[in-house]
Design brief:
heterodimer; A: 87 residues; alpha+beta; Alpha-Beta Plaits; 3 helices; 4 strands; 40% helix; B: 361 residues; five-stranded antiparallel sheet; 9 helices
Amino acid sequence: MRYIFLILAVFSLSFAKVAIIHVEGMTCPLCTMAIKKSLKQIDGVSKAKVRLNTKKATVYFDDKVDKKQLLNAIKRAGYKGKIESIK
Amino acid sequence: MERRGFLVGSMVLGAMAIVPSEMFAVENRRRFKVIADFDIKYDEKDFPAKLWFPLPYDSDYQKVRSLKFSGNYDDSNINSDNKEDAKILFASWKKSDKKKTLHVEMEIETTYRSVNLKYIKKASSKNLPIPASVKKFLEPSSHIPTDGKIKEIADKLTKGMTDRFQKVQAIYNWVTKTTFRDPKVIGCGVGNAGKMVESGYFGGKCTDISSLFVALTRAAGIPCRDVFGIRLGLSHFSKALGKADKNGFANISTWQHCRAEYYIPGIGWVPTDPADITKLELVEKLNYNDKKTKELRAKYINSWEMNWVGFNWGRDFVLSPKPEQFPINMLGYPYGEVDGDVLNYYSPRAFAYKITSQEIK
């Protein structure tokens, strides 16, 4: 059962889009969690990683999510995002 | 590194033979047994964890008399391997579904810390050079800018002054009058002095207010630093500044408190606590010019009541071993990570940790 979940997770991530977003305004490690939490509330975002040192968020999402939703989620958390790339 | 600076400062004082016994007031020796318990929580069953717990530094006014720790961690060490020489107990757990626990016990002895004003003024009037070992406390960091509006305010407040202590007094008076304690701020506040002056909103908590004082004092050319620590028990001045039950026991999990120190050559580091003036005003519903506020203002420009213990003065630095999130803004709270996710150090319940203190009579 565990392996099935793992395979499904890898499968879904391999077909996900990946956005790299530059985030302004983070001042402490907890800021990364506020942004991650906000991004993960979007239906269709499967994974989000936010790093304080690079000021970047890496977001894995599916076709029903558009980039505006990602930037709005970052804004709701109190920060400003700028899309660097989407693949 | 800094402890070496302190020793150098002490040696300079010794060499100058200006260390009369009354220069450093010694009274109110107190002892506390501090216990910290961790049972790390995360929203998955199987998870790894890393924990960095700040430990007190040793000085003439605070000493860790004993320290022991135990738990089911896979690895642990005590290190000061960071640019700020902050002492840390590190523990880590491999990915598993087992509980992740750490128990720390410390016996801490403190002594009321006060530097005689007469000697501060005398040393300050000599305008001695700043030792190389403390020059780094003149430098800006991302949260402590010393240019722009900070510099403008510092210049305005200290215009025409050449004496360092006079400048400190002017900045201290302005900070304690201008800032106020905003109870809505989470934890001790972020301590972003640049943002505070840019926004013009001077409400905050201890890290915010101390950082503003530090930034302005550095901008005026005087070495200065935040000192992060935790309150341990009853204050003899006001319950606003520390309390305990009738047996001297207190749950201090959320009692982290940031103070400040400035450096006067010929004397060394001088303690101050501008933020507690604003806390006293809020909790006791006092005004700036009320008698009790005036009394604390006079006291806290050159002293600390030691119902508190200091951990470090680190700002914007990288812990060891290196966490996934860095730099850390300050280390007054336990810091924990699970796979790059930061545990909420402002919430002892969510993290989870509990820190208690028992005063030993």
